[in-house]
């Protein structure tokens, strides 16, 4: 039996097929609307596409989880409830939810549907997780990317719920589901409209050999000639602190870098983590195929007690650099 | 470092070309742009209309999605090719060869080979952008919508065109398999050609495909 389930992203039917073929145990995806936290143009699944995706995945013994992980807008619950109804009707293996009301709706109307708690709920302590378990029957919690591995181990010792952690991809350093940085800059919310740094508010401007990235009218980074570029997210912006008295802009929260926790497999297993998640529903199928295949090889080697092969994926990640993020952050 | 983006070739396309065949396809694409520019608006336009119809028949989902976008123009600029392309999305979908300074709501610039890989989903656009091999300007949402729509397809430009060519479609896999050997023969012939002929061949190549990057 494998040490971990490998949970992989898909933003399109082609990406889903790539993930399944490359060795995913489960694929997570969203509907083509504001009910999921990757609501980008041209991305995600219609209902017929989800039906086809589930048929393709199930025929290969791969599960499909549907992320409905934004927060419904007051007075407009219907799109979120319909998403839960349709995921259940189409035989999704689980729905990934964050909102308390939606969890209650799913538990009441679809008691047979497996509920996972989204990272967007930012459930980071045993009391909160127990509440989700007892109130709604949540079977798995996706942990926020702010915990150290020892904290995850202590948490798992205290709760009777499966835990899933991010191991690769874009790194959100904030308390997810509660971050308003992008909302402040653009007026659109990652937590309500499903768009962090919405493309409609992003502009890239060449400045000689440099490249400036702007979000909602704010310049948030200027990449020098040949310097790897990053996403236009405020948490990875470079700013001049102190009212502009410093001469050199610096990263305040996090540098453009990508999470890679491959080196922590033994510790994550000892911490009784159940599933490893790869981030990147917004990425192309080439990325998904390459990353999933590399992680599949690594996990298979780990399960056989063999040395875990290096991933060699630096060329594909944000900033061209990788980190173990909060899992090993000394200051925490 | 190898390019991980190419790991999906065999999964995505049964008749995926080997690297040397791929190089030929890139050269043909660049040459095609050069020829289209010389044909002028009318004949070149007919050529691209036909190409779009072929691709639409093979990828109706993607074309329906492109048709639903707001009316906008995207400049696709292969920096090492003799001309650029202007793609109009929205209700009046059109593709035309153009000058690389043409007005557009958004621009994507990169080497021809990378843009072709991107069109066919063989490589990840974000990775190219992070590495500064691809640059974008203007309406980012339009670029993202196009990228995501195309990435959702399993497009193979030469395969799709060959498939519309009746019995000739069987020739493409053979050509792709034998491209390496054919190129070796061509290189040998070129080595033994008299200098004026060799020089003429080089000039013709440059005229058709534009300057090679790094050359």
Descriptive key words:
heterodimer, A: 332 residues, alpha/beta, TIM Barrel, 2 domains, eight-stranded parallel β-barrel, B: 215 residues, alpha+beta, Nonspecific Lipid-transfer Protein, Chain A, five-stranded mixed β-sheet, 5 strands, globular
Q: In summary, what is this structure?
A:
The complex is a heterodimer of chains A (332) and B (215). Chain A is an alpha/beta fold and 332 residues long.
SSE layout and pairing:
The complex is a heterodimer of chains A (332) and B (215).
Chain A lengths: L4 E5 L3 H10 L3 E4 L17 H12 L4 E6 L9 H12 L4 E4 L2 H10 L5 E3 L8 H11 L3 E3 L6 H10 L3 E9 L10 H6 L15 E6 L2 E6 L2 E6 L14 E2 L10 E2 L6 E3 L4 H6 L4 E4 L6 H19 L18 E2 L9
Helix pairs in contact in A: 1-2, 1-9, 3-4
Chain B lengths: L8 H4 L6 H40 L1 H9 L3 E7 L5 E6 L4 E5 L7 E5 L1 H8 L5 H6 L4 E4 L1 H12 L5 H7 L7 H22 L2 H15 L6
Parallel strand pairs in B: 1-4
Antiparallel strand pairs in B: 1-2, 2-3, 4-5
Helix pairs in contact in B: 2-3, 2-7, 2-8, 2-9
What name does the CATH topology of chain B carry? Nonspecific Lipid-transfer Protein, Chain A
CATH class of the largest domain in chain A: Alpha Beta
Helix content range of the residues of chain A, please? Answer: 25-40%
**What does the main sheet of chain B amount to?**
5 strands, mixed
CATH-level-2 architecture of the largest domain in chain A: Alpha-Beta Barrel
**For the terminal residues of chain B, how far apart are their CA atoms?**
22 Å
Sequence of secondary-structure elements of chain A: EHEHEHEHEHEHEHEEEEEEHEHE
Helix and strand succession of chain B? Answer: HHHEEEEHHEHHHH
Mean pLDDT of chain B: 82
Structural class of chain B: alpha+beta
